[in-house]
Each structure stands twice: as structure tokens, then as C-alpha cells.
Design brief:
Structural class: mainly alpha
Strand order of the largest sheet: 1-2
Distance between the termini: 45 Å
Helix content: over 70%
Largest sheet: 2 strands, antiparallel
InterPro entries: Transgly_assoc
Number of strands: 2
Shape: globular
Number of domains: 1
Membrane topology: Multi-pass membrane protein
GO cellular component, one term: plasma membrane
Number of helices: 3
Protein name: GlsB/YeaQ/YmgE family stress response membrane protein
Keywords: Cell membrane, Membrane, Transmembrane, Transmembrane helix
Length: about 80
């Protein structure tokens, strides 16, 4: 049950980050989960474990990290699509 809970929370973190930044994550639900997991690693590396912890994710740094990740991915995809 713990792994399923982590997938759900990771997906929600990615989804919230995409809503905040106003860009869709490529890959739909799977992209949201990946953005949540990778964003959590980025955010916790930069900001530590501040804020509430849900499903193994420090929520505030995870969302900030996912926002950073989605922003960088959108910049890369935009530059690739221009060529």
C-alpha cells in the first residue's frame, strides 16, 4: 500500500505544480508522477524537509522542485520544437 500511496502523492504533486506554472506535463498521468518524484528529489536537495510530510514527500519542497522541473522541461521542449 505504501508504494501505491507514493504514486498517488507523486502524481498529485506533479499535477499541482503543472497547475501553478500553467504548463501541461508531457506524458499525462505518468508525466505527473515522474514530475512529482523527480521534483521531490530536486526540491528536497535544495530546500530540505520543510513543511508537512505526506507519503514520504516533503510537500512544499516537492512542489517547488516539480515547478522547477516542469519549467526547465518546457523550455527544452520549446527550443527543440522551434528547430
Amino acid at each position: 500500500m505504501g508504494f501505491l500511496w507514493a504514486l498517488i502523492v507523486g502524481g498529485l504533486i506533479g499535477w499541482v505544480a503543472s497547475l501553478i506554472i500553467g504548463k501541461d506535463v508531457p506524458g499525462g498521468i505518468i508525466g505527473n508522477i515522474v514530475a512529482g518524484f523527480i521534483g521531490s528529489m530536486i526540491g528536497q536537495a535544495i530546500f530540505g524537509d520543510m513543511g508537512p510530510d505526506i507519503g514520504g514527500f516533503a510537500v512544499i519542497p516537492a512542489i517547488i522542485g516539480a515547478i522547477i522541473l516542469i519549467f526547465i522541461v518546457s523550455l527544452i521542449l520549446r527550443s527543440v520544437n522551434k528547430k
